[in-house]
Specification:
InterPro entries: 4-PPantetheinyl_Trfase_dom, 4-PPantetheinyl_Trfase_dom_sf, AASDHPPT_N, P-Pant_transferase_sf. This protein has helices at residues 28-33, 37-43, 48-55, 60-81, 142-152, 154-159, 167-175, 183-208, 287-291, and strands at 6-12, 91-92, 98-99, 110-117, 120-127, 133-139, 220-223, 236-240, 244-247, 250-252, 256-262, 266-272, 279-284. By secondary structure, the protein is of the alpha+beta class. It folds into 2 domains: 6-131 and 284-291, 4'-phosphopantetheinyl transferase domain (Ribosomal Protein L22, Chain A); 140-255, 4'-phosphopantetheinyl transferase domain (Ribosomal Protein L22, Chain A, Alpha-Beta Complex). The structure holds coenzyme A (COA).
């Protein structure tokens, strides 16, 4: 792995660790899913508390995301900090942001952050402890949001998020429109633009670790948000990296933000506290080839 770059991994769990077709959507179904040999193989790589965390999820789709998140974190720590898989312990910082705390402070350290939504899991990471990173995946929820916007109007729908956005951001979100689009397309475009705002803000607050509890959430503003064009299903799409960041009315110039489309329905936001360290392209990870410990298992 190139230590100079910030690496970015994606794992799509849609096609892996399938649930048996006869599994009922009830709490026991996750336990039944866990008996699938592929799932069991993955779960057995995790420490007991992470194994238990995965199985606490009611829905198999959530258990899969949690399982993938754990595996990616261990792979990232093992590779970046050069420790065996069994020593790649995932801890938490004071804000409960997952992190790696080496047993000996003189050993290599790293920074990473994870996000998951739908069937997609992303991890961004880099060696060292100076750079802070945040990542967020959003998935447009057309079937839930679209009828609500039609019913209550976009402005009313958007202002329900005023706990997160500044007045300026809400105004930008409400005013957004694509010239010449039909009203149906306009709602979709406005929703995509809203989710672009959301994704950027989440990535930033996850970088700091304060997450959505940050008391300054509404003091942080993204201006001139451009929505990356969607791509074919399962493909990475357009990247926008020119958003303006403002904090209490002052332009922030020491944080890099990038927003990338993935398929029609996803966007991935990345925040980095380093302007210099390049962001690698997202790499599609494969469980068997890229994640499972083959060389370093003991
Ligand atoms: C925690 C929070 C950032 C998750 O955001 P989300 O959009 O629901 O979910 P995402 O998929 O983007 O992120 C989930 C990942 O964020 C990471 N995360 C958790 N706390 C975090 C924090 N304080 N800062 C940055 N990342 C955090 C974890 O890796 C988690 O995945 P994992 O549990 O599989 O390891 C968001 O719910 C939040 O800000 N909550 C308020 C703070 C809070 O409740 N903290 C208590 C956590 S127990």
């Amino acid at each position: 792995m190139d230590d100079a770059n910030i690496f970015r991994w994606l794992l799509n769990v849609g096609e892996i660790w399938p649930s048996p077709s006869n599994v009922d959507p009830n709490p026991k179904s996750t336990a039944v899913w866990a008996t699938n040999p592929d799932v069991k193989k993955a779960l057995d790589l995790l420490p007991a508390h992470e194994h238990a965390k995965v199985l606490r999820f009611y829905h198999i789709r959530d258990a899969k995301l949690s399982l993938a998140s754990s595996l990616l974190k261990h792979r990232a720590i093992a590779d970046t900090c050069h420790v065996p898989w069994k020593d790649s312990n995932v801890g938490e910082d004071k804000n409960r942001k997952p992190c790696y705390k080496p047993p000996d402070p003189a050993q290599p350290k790293m920074e990473f952050n994870v996000s998951h939504h739908g069937t997609l899991v992303a991890l961004v990471g880099c060696a060292g402890e100076k750079i802070k990173l945040g990542v967020d995946i959003v998935q447009m929820n057309w079937s839930k949001d679209y009828p609500m916007v039609v019913k209550s109007g976009f402005e009313s729908w958007a202002t329900t998020y005023e706990m997160v956005f500044s007045q300026g951001e809400i105004a930008e979100i409400v005013a957004y429109s694509v010239p010449g689009s039909s009203s149906q397309d306009d709602i979709r475009a406005k929703l995509r633009h809203f989710y672009a705002h959301w994704c950027l803000k989440e990535a930033y607050v996850k970088m700091t670790g304060e997450a959505l509890l940050a008391p300054w959430l509404k003091d942080l503003e993204f201006r001139g948000v451009r929505v990356p064009l969607p791509s074919q299903a399962g493909q990475l799409g357009q990247i926008n990296s020119d958003v303006e960041i403002w904090f209490r009315g002052v332009r922030v110039t020491d944080v890099k933000m990038e927003l990338q489309a993935y398929g029609e329905d996803y966007m991935i936001g990345t925040a980095s506290s380093s302007l210099d360290r390049p962001l690698s392209e997202f790499r599609n990870m494969r469980v068997d080839e890229d994640i499972y410990p083959i060389k370093d298992v003991d």
